[in-house]
Specification:
Layout lengths: L1 E7 L4 H10 L3 E9 L4 E10 L2 E10 L4 E2 L8 H12 L3 E2 L31
Parallel strand pairs: 1-4, 5-6
Antiparallel strand pairs: 2-3, 3-4
GO molecular function: NADH dehydrogenase (ubiquinone) activity
Protein name: NADH-quinone oxidoreductase subunit C
InterPro entries: NADH_quin_OxRdtase_su_C/D-like, NADH_UbQ_OxRdtase_30kDa_su, NiFe-hyd_3_EchD
């Protein structure tokens, strides 16, 4: 098994994900991690014939991220989860649950980000 990490930017992530799809890779999942006080990293994990490739995107938490759900429809679940858990906005998300996919209505704080409040859901 081989692993390869490719750094991407907000401007190149969708194109690189499209290349992965065109090359026959399946989207496995994403991993999200805190880089520093206001930075966030996302690893997009792909697999083809036991070869894994990861795209690494690093952004400021306040920046929106282009959605890849237009390329891999199933990405909408992971992107909505990241929105729920990390307070990240994805531009162009094919189905946006507006922080209601995994969070109960009574949740008023973003789970993985300290001191970020959210309005209660109706």
């Amino acid at each position: 098994m081989k692993d390869k990490v490719i750094n991407v930017t907000r401007d190149t992530v969708v194109g690189e994900v499209m290349k992965m799809k065109n090359d026959g890779y399946r989207l496995v999942t994403f991993s999200t991690y805190q880089v520093d006080e206001d930075g966030l990293g996302i690893l997009y994990h792909f697999d083809k014939n036991l070869e894994t490739i990861h795209l690494r995107l690093t952004v400021k938490r306040k920046d929106s991220i282009p959605s890849v759900s237009g390329v891999y429809f199933a990405a909408l679940l992971v992107e909505n989860e990241i929105r729920d858990q990390w307070d990240v906005k994805f531009d162009g998300l094919v189905l946006d649950f507006n922080r209601t996919l995994y969070l109960d209505p009574e949740v008023t704080q973003v789970p993985l980000v300290s001191n970020v409040k959210i309005a209660p859901k109706q």
